[in-house]
Amino acid sequence: MSLHTMITPDTEAIVTGAPLSRRRRQLRKAGESYGFLAPTLLLLFVLMIVPIVMVIGYSFQDRAVMGASSGFVGLANYVEVLSDPGFWKATGNTLYFTGVSVAAHLVIGLTFAMLLNSTLIGVVPRAIFRALYVLPWLFTAAVIAVLWRMLLAPNGIVNFLLTTDVEWLASPQLALGTVTFVNIWAGYPFFMVSLLAGLQGIPGELNEAATVDGANGPQRFWNVTIPQLRPIIVSLLLLDFIWTSQQFALIWMTTGGGPIDVTEVLSTFTYKLAFAQYDFAVAATSAVLVLLMSMVLAVLYVRHQKARD
Known about the structure:
Residues 91-301 form the ABC transmembrane type-1 domain. With 309 residues, the protein is mainly α. It has 14 helices and no strands.
């Protein structure tokens, strides 16, 4: 048997170097892809990974300030934070503030989304209502805080219309509920826009088939609309719970966590530890605990997205 007959197409490709050139092209494409990602990955590393690692390191030190500390203390800071009544008070306020806000965002957002998706409203009024309903989402937290502080002032428009003289943001009985109401007003458009997109993606044949089968409005809502929107609703609830539980600017600029500690949440509690008491190690410990809570929700969200895909 001659050498020519022993060379197969595969061995000929290896001899001529075709697979090697293909491999080089694949490596070059991969290198280009990672090259485009490199600036973003570098920013994430510098602005996210490094600070997180530093904060975790501070949580095991004693009064760490800008890299200087008086020594490693192990879990002592965690014991101190978890035994602090103020931490649990802030946790309870955070759960109330977040739970009520997220539930109200869902109800109000779904109601307005169904209203805007209804054929009972003309095209022009529908466009006007969409612009009006989405306005709160366009304002920053600073603008919202200043606006509502003016409206809820003792001599503001709210007390004028209600003919009362109530300290809405300074009353221990009303402050937390008032701040929660402001957050609800500011956040429902996110649900409204997302659910409106979901409603417009529901095939009309499903509602027509349910109507032919004798289903009334509420039955079509619970058996057609809600099942079609369930993936979107679950995603929105998880995302909104993560975002709302970390709300800081709105509360800090309206009540500052007061009066006393009525509106103190985990974000303002941690901020005060760091920049009012200058106890950066304990503040870092509180931040790590908040991070762990957020990671639980993030894992649930990622698992839901994978299951949905």
